[in-house]
């Protein structure tokens, strides 16, 4: 097979019926819900933001949608057609005209033969550059196809982008994520029906119950009482950071979540990546669509939100506290290290610069260049998405003693 960046998506495709019955819901693809629209919106914007960088760097990639569906949700394009649409848009950029051997391998898979036949009809009527975009269509079960993809190390150096949208979260295991992330240049985006599992975190399920198995596999605390849904999601993040390794040189992945709040229904996105550039792209997409980078409120007018406006400042405040603690404990950090810390926390360098400016005015930090010369001009602090030089951020010792 081929390789590329990983998108893994888990989603409850029906908010009103038990998960055990979802695969019988033949009407699912007849319309598109608000949350499905927002999911595909983030997926689409991330592709636009990150894919051009990968193609310019590597020249080829694999994008695999392993639960692709029929191609449309009612009158709306589903993930396969959204992808082809965006690829057409990206490849029209003149900078790709001089790129030799440019190839984008696209793998669409669904175990439902009817979905595959419908998708083939949609693709046959779709206009795209068939010399660059190579489409491969399969009709297999996910659990049969995935091991074959993972067992092809000769292609592991190519960036890999897997978009998985199964009918139940129980289809994908932690070991799947571990194996996928061991491949180089991989990313995973998990789409979880988080509110469904959150409601039952303290239920008395038997050990073999699917919901209990999932909660115990994907959280640190397991079946327990959580203060709120964000504590639950943070616990999932902690478990992912604990269980998933990338490589010996950089074993700890970047993980961030975004909650999709539809009022009565909730879903969540978890990005797992080994690349700060990928994480930064998702941070930008998240802040474009949310007030705080965490809660994507997509409720309809008749629905009430699970969250108050207080949440809009909660995460900024938490980031500020964690950043100050980090700077104080380390005492001296480079601008690159501070930027990496910020990106890992789900924020952007512009947010780091805001806090550093505040601390600088309070005389809690000083900025130096390599010759120990202080820098007062914030434009020369090297705090940006692409810093051109290294600077040193030093916590003022006197202020540290006072604290």
From TrEMBL:
This is Three-Cys-motif partner protein. It comes from Marinifilum flexuosum.
């Amino acid at each position: 097979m081929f390789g590329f960046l990983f998108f893994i998506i888990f989603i409850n495709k029906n908010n009103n019926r038990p998960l055990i019955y979802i695969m019988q819901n033949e009407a699912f693809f007849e319309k598109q819900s608000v949350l499905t629209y927002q999911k595909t919106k983030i997926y689409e914007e991330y592709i636009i933001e990150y894919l051009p960088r990968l193609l310019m760097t590597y020249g080829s990639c694999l994008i695999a949608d392993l639960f692709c569906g029929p191609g449309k949700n009612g009158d709306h394009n589903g993930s396969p057609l959204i992808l082809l649409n965006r690829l057409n848009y990206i490849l029209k950029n003149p900078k790709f005209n001089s790129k030799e051997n440019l190839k984008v391998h696209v793998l669409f898979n669904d175990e439902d033969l009817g979905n595959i036949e419908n998708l083939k009809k949609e693709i046959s009527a779709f206009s795209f550059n068939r010399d660059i975009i190579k489409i491969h269509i399969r009709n297999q079960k996910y659990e049969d196809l995935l091991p074959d993809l993972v067992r092809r190390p000769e292609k592991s150096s190519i960036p890999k982008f897997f978009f998985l949208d199964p009918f139940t979260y129980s289809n994908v295991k932690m070991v799947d994520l571990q194996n996928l992330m061991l491949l180089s240049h991989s990313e995973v985006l998990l789409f979880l029906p988080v509110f469904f599992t959150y409601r039952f975190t303290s239920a008395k399920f038997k050990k073999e119950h699917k919901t209990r198995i999932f909660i115990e596999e994907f959280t640190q605390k397991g079946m327990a009482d959580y203060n709120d849904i964000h504590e639950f999601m943070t616990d999932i993040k902690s478990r992912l950071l604990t269980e998933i390794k990338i490589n010996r040189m950089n074993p700890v992945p970047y993980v961030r979540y975004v909650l999709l709040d539809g009022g009565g229904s909730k879903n969540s996105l978890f990005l797992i990546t080994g690349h700060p550039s990928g994480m930064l792209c998702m941070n930008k997409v998240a802040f474009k669509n949310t007030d705080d980078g965490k809660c994507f409120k997509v409720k309809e007018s008749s629905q009430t939100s699970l969250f108050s406006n207080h949440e809009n400042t909660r995460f900024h405040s938490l980031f500020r506290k964690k950043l100050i603690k980090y700077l104080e404990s380390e005492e001296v950090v480079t601008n690159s290290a501070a930027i990496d810390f910020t990106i890992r926390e789900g924020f952007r360098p512009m947010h780091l610069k805001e806090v550093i400016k505040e601390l600088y005015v309070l005389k809690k930090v000083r900025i130096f260049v390599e010759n120990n010369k202080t820098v007062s001009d914030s434009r020369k602090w090297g705090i940006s998405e692409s810093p051109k030089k290294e600077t040193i951020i030093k916590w003022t010792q006197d202020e540290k003693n006072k604290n």
